[in-house]
Amino acid sequence: MQNCNLITLTTDFGLKDPFVGQMKGAILKHNFDARIIDITHAVPAHDILTAAVIIRTSYNYFPKGSTHVVVVDPGVGSQRQILAAVADGHMFIVPDNGTLTILAKDSIIEHVHRVENKTLFPRKISSTFHGRDIMAPVAAALAKGMPINELGPPTDMGQCVLLNIGNPQISAKANIEIGDQRIITIDATYSQQETGKLLALIDSAGYLEIAVNKSSAAQLTCCELGDPVIVHMS
Predict the structure, then answer these.
(1) What number does CATH give the domain 175-232?
(2) Coil, helix or strand for 90?
């Protein structure tokens, strides 16, 4: 596979601390010509499912041969491993914590390796920042042309952590309950409902979105991350 020396970053670091800058520095230290693109650093803290959705809905807007690094890693420093995968002509470096779940469900992962080539790591590795000390130099090496099989032994997705998520199918007449609110139709655009009214639509990534025209669905429903959304199919 031809690499394009482009690396994307998706993390839950935020932008107040120096962590994003340190990761970029660690990449450039090993691959000065790498192009680095931020997808987002605002993934909710430790939210692996959101990270999995973001990378699944974003990678294909980049050229084939890109390397995508996802650091949402609540198990950093534990026995969890780091994976390097090839899927749909792209490379992904992630913790083995379920980040690859949706790519696996799409059946586009071609092969996976466990990252164990310690010659790529610095002598001193922080137990709390594998994104900088392991994943960044590995991304730099991959983007520069290192074959992925040199990172470590192959494995298969059946041996990796996968999140337990379903395969919902949404129709135009779905009956949706969220908090104490109910939505009885799926709209095509926000403007199909009056300003301030709760609505549901299929977003630009193909997922069910609960929104309010020109306002906040989170505020209107008083719901938070992890609260249930019930969809009754007719």
Answers:
(1) 2.40.30.90
(2) strand
User: From residue 166, how far is each of 55, 104, 137, 173, 214 by CA, in Å?
Assistant: 18, 13, 35, 20, 30
The strand pair at 90-95 and 67-71 is best described as parallel
pLDDT digits (tens, 9 = 90+) for 118-158: 999 999 999 999 999 999 999 999 999 999 999 999 999 99
Task: Please give the CATH architecture assigned to the domain spanning 6-159.
Answer: 3-Layer(aba) Sandwich (3.40)
Measure CA 190 to chain center.
26
What's the gap between Cα 147 and its chain centre?
23
Q: Which of 154, 131, 141, 36 is nearest to 85 (CA)?
A: 154
196-224 per-position pLDDT tens digit: 999 999 998 888 899 999 999 989 999 88
Token digits of residue 132: 């900088």
Residue 60 CB neighbour total at 10 angstroms: 13
